[in-house]
Amino acid sequence: MISSSKGKSIIIWGIHPVREFLELYSYDCQEIFVHPSFGKKKAQASLLSMAMRQAVVVRRTEHLESAGVPAGIVHQGIAAVVRPVWSIDFLSLPMYWRNKSPLVVLCDQVTDPQNVGSIIRSAVAMGAQAVLLPSHRTSGITGAVAKSSSGALFHIKVCQVGNLVTAMRQLKELGLWIAGLSPDGEHQLWNANLNSPLALVVGAEGKGLHRLVKKTCDLLVRIPHFGPVASMNVASAASIALYEIARQRNLIV
Question: Which superfamily does CATH assign the domain made up of 90-248 to?
Fold first, then answer.
């Protein structure tokens, strides 16, 4: 069953993510919370001026945790409650790659929000149109993901699905080739043809891709290692794979 990724508003934090969201989707920013001392520096004052020009409610509070920011987070004195503008339904995917060669990234069992955010950042940089996240055993979209993506989340569409294997099969029906990134892949990354409409599946370090996910892939590719380290972080591996896809598509100049 394919589920919708639409959900409730979330809270994001940090100067860059909040500024990026305001520049793109000011009407979807419901309110901003700032520390009483926020605004003394030039970048802070500029951000507050932007919020006021766009008629966004700004509230001052000594404790941003009371607004929903997790305790212990480095929030730079600002947070915002925003609507999930990145969220789309699975059936809406094709409209986002119209007149483009589709490139979608699927995360399997990637539970660390820092990794999910980094993968999203690389996906945006290398021309992907969407990221698919299963609703179980993978981090959903949170403020930590938005912060880790450094605002890239607001430049891509994210679809949450109930079953990743079902989503992969439906992507095949839409004409996409499914490539799984795996240490035991039969093809070296740069020897595989990745220039067709493509869905790249990445799995968590250690666990890797789930058995059924691997079985559903059309091909499995690996990144050769030349040093003593036997594996790499999933976000780093995804970044390398996405760069190679962009290179094959002549997007790198």
Answer: SPOUT methyltransferase, trefoil knot domain (3.40.1280.10)
Q: What is the spatial distance between Cα 21 and Cα 12, in angstroms, rounded to a whole number?
A: 9
Mean pLDDT, to the nearest integer, of 109-123? 95
Query: Which residue, 37, 55, 44, is CA-closest to 19?
Result: 44
Instruction: Decide: 237 and 105 in contact? Cβ < 8 Å.
Output: no
Burial bucket for residue 100 (CB in 10 Å: 0-12, 13-18, 19+): exposed
**73 pLDDT above the threshold of 70:** yes
**Would you say the C-alpha torsion 46, 49, 53, 55 has a positive or negative sign?**
positive
CB-based contacts of 5, cutoff 8 Å, min separation 6? 84, 87, 88, 89, 90, 133, 158, 159, 160, 161
Tokens found for residue 234:
């999933």
Q: What is the rounded average pLDDT of the residues 179-196?
A: 92
Each residue's pLDDT tens digit, 77-93: 999 999 999 999 999 99
What is the separation, in whole angstroms, between the first and last Cα of the chain? 40
Q: Any idea where the domains of the chain sit in the sequence?
A: 10-82, 90-248
Q: Give the global pTM.
A: 0.91
**Which of 105, 216, 235, 233 has the alpha carbon at shortest distance from 158?**
105
Architecture of the domain delimited by 10-82: 2-Layer Sandwich (3.30)
**Cα–Cα distance, 172 to 116 (Å, whole number):** 23
CA torsion, points 231, 233, 237, 239, in degrees to nearest 10? -160
Tell me if 135 sits within 8 A of 108, measured CB to CB.
Answer: no
pLDDT interval class at 3 (50, 70, 90): very low
